[in-house]
Design goal:
Elements: H1 3-9, H2 14-21, H3 25-45, E1 51-55, H4 61-69, E2 74-79, H5 82-94, E3 99-103, E4 115-121, H6 129-141, E5 143-154, H7 160-176, H8 181-191, H9 199-208, E6 212-220, E7 223-229
This protein binds S-adenosylmethionine.
S-adenosylmethionine binds at residues 3-4, 7, 56-58, 61-62, 79-81, 84, 105-106, 121-123, 126.
Length: 238
Amino acid sequence: MAVSALFDSMAGSYDESRRRLVPCLEEFYGTAVEVAAPPLRAALAAGRTPEVLDLGAGTGLLSLLVAAAVPGARLTLLDAAPAMLAVAGGQLRARAVAHHTVVADLADPLPPGPYDAVVSALAIHHLDDGGKRDLYRRAHGVLRPGGVFVNAEQVAGPTPELDRRYHEVWLAQVAALGSEPAEIEAARERMSFDRPAPVRAQCGWLREAGFADVDCFFKSWRFAVLGGHRSGGPGDGG
Ligand SMILES: C[S@@+](CC[C@H](N)C(=O)[O-])C[C@H]1O[C@@H](n2cnc3c(N)ncnc32)[C@H](O)[C@@H]1O
């Protein structure tokens, strides 16, 4: 089964399980929103509608948080799982957030934008390393100068021993948060599709793609928030 079909099959229960399966949920997503927000607020101040592209948007968790932090932003949610996007559409409509959804693979050409922010959470680790590098280049290409890219991601440990430790810690944390064995088993099945890469390699690929001020803005074991911005905005002095 393709990974998007696995997510589609759990679209109705996905949001509810997140609090148990992502131990640092609020800081993790909250940091991604803080990284994404400045160019969106700058667009509003300039009298423009801020445009955001959410890659692997799923049920819209990150899109909803961005929309709440920057009212007036317009969201484009891209995902290969139509049932996940249908849940997202319902939640965004209920909050009167301007948006549209695109059923597509992350390997497909991106909607052209230009975007003030390209955001993503827990999706890009489904691509192999070549696919991640290529997507980082394409994300850079659809951003406006000064726009930001942020990826709240599941990463690999820098060594096999640390990677094993990340998994051990995650298992203990999700059990402490009340996740039942069946839920953990289903998550492990989805994780068999994961191809996470270490923070250091990914920051290198972001720089190689042309991003400036690349950083890891948050990290707690296997959960990390990485990003950078496209040069040439008003703050770059050019
Ligand atoms: C763990 S969910 C994350 C959803 C959402 N971003 C969030 O933070 O809750 C991963 C999402 O990535 C999507 N996905 C995985 N691989 C994909 C691909 N190659 N192309 C498009 N979407 C993909 C899945 O369909 C799923 O909705």
